[in-house]
Amino acid sequence: MQPPRSLPKQNKVWSRFTRRIQAIPLSTKLVTCIIVLLTIGTIGISFSIRTLVGNYLLQKTDTQLINQAQLIFNSMDSLSSDTGDDGRSLMNTYYVEVRDSEYKSTGAGSVPMLRDGVVSEPSLPADGSIDGVTLGQPFTTRAVVHITTSRTPDHSIMQAAQSPWRVVALPWNEKTRTGQVKDSGVVFIGLSLSDQIDTANTLTRFCAMVGIAVVLIGAILGTILVQSTLAPLKRIEKTAAKIAAGDLSQRVPDLPESTEVGSLSMSLNTMLTRIEESFHAQEETTEKMKRFVSDASHELRTPLAAIHGYAELYKMQRDMPGALERADESIEHIEASSARMTVLVEDLLSLARLDEGRGIDITQQVKLTSVVRDAADDLHALDPDRGISCGQVVLQPGTDMDHPTQFAFQNGQMPQIELKGDASR
Q1: Distance from CA of residue 416 to its chain's centroid?
Q2: 67, 111, 232, 333 - which has most CB atoms within 10 Å?
């Protein structure tokens, strides 16, 4: 089974996206992050405020419905007289519908009427049923809108009429003077949520405007703060550009070491100091090398000129009488000049090997006694009148407190001592 071929393409797309993100300047990334965080924060706060206010207003509406229930129960007989011919009331803002014990509408109640003949009623269970409704528990239902006039209502009126309703179903009963239950049923009390929705929408618009202002102000302040924070890095960048151009005397401005940029500045300045010292040392080494090459060239030119001159002289005088003696003399001078040139070339090779770390063998066994004996003989040859003695230092035990144990030189044979090192150097 072959692996899917889409993975390399996805990796290429992700790699291309990562490179584009990395190409964005740091200041732009920081400002963008600030704007995104402020936007998310304002949206979250606005949503939380709207939710809290909506729940509070809904709870307040429920409490208002429950509190109005007793007043409606006390005025059950007068509901029909307070309404118009079609059961609609211009003064009351509550919707009231009375049903009997079989949940059929009795015709009594109150239906609020809006301007321009617009009537809004809650959608309730069908006549003779209360399916899905729990007595005493408020619920939200959609609105049913009727237009009783031929005039076209305003948009605001229609929007308010189409707002959902908050309704509560409560049991009721009517008693006689003797205390017997005369009649009973269910009464639906509703209140339109248009005012609550309008309040929540107004609060949302206000939060949106405040949020936009906060994001804009935060973006401006964040840009200023990011630019001022990254200003030392800009100065470091300019200093690095001058150093790259060859000015090693430049230094990064000092900042408090407790900050990240200050610690970076201190490390860069230390590094630049070492680089400058190394560069000057390299310049001195290069200058010494140039002088050495110049001197070596001058020294090599002399024996080469002598060799060339004696060779030309030999060519000129080889047909003259006594040419053999003069040839021997020329050959001796050529040999001496070549020997001198060979010594100079060996010195150059030795310096090259030493510079490369070669030419020294410290693993050889060196007889230190022979080296010391040869040095003593050379010193005696240079200064015959100087007295030179060879021997060893021994520990001479003391005899008493006045003559303690001490070191003493003992003339004679030197012990055979061998060390590891380079005998010729």
Answers
A1: 69
A2: 111
Query: Residues 75-101: pLDDT tens digits?
Result: 665 554 444 444 444 346 888 888 888
Q: What is the CATH number of domain 276-359?
A: 1.10.287.130
Strands 139-141 and 105-112: unpaired
pLDDT at 91: 44
Taking the C-alpha atoms of residue 123 and residue 145, their distance in angstroms, rounded to an integer, is 10
Query: What is the side-by-side order of every strand in the sheet holding 94-100?
Result: 88-89, 105-112, 94-100, 181-192, 165-175, 139-141
Cα–Cα separations (whole angstroms), residue 189 to 92, 135, 136, 182: 12, 11, 11, 22
Residue 299: partners with Cβ closer than 8 Å, 6 or more residues away: 344
Q: What is the CA angle 371-377-379, rounded to 5?
A: 100
Nearest to 368 by CA among 297, 417, 425, 321: 417
| Spatial distance between the Cα atoms of 336 and 328, rounded to a whole number of angstroms | 12
Query: How far, in Å, CA of 84 to CA of 119, rounded?
Result: 13
Nearest to 356 by CA among 367, 348, 366: 348
Measured between alpha carbons, how far is 77 from 94 in angstroms, rounded to an integer? 17
- Decide if 72 contacts 187 (C-beta within 8 A): yes
Amino acid letter for position 72: I
Tokens of 174: 């009517």
> Nearest to residue 353, comparing CAs of 278, 422, 301, 282?
422
d(CA 315, CA 307): 12
How far apart, in whole angstroms, are the C-alpha atoms of residue 422 and residue 362?
Answer: 5
For tokens 């405020």, name the residue. 49
Amino acid at 175: K
Q: What tokens does 42 get?
A: 């304002």
For 300, half-sphere exposure in the C-beta direction (CA atoms, 13 angstrom radius) is 13
Check residues 318 and 142 and name the one with the higher pLDDT. Answer: 142
Tell whether pTM > 0.70.
no
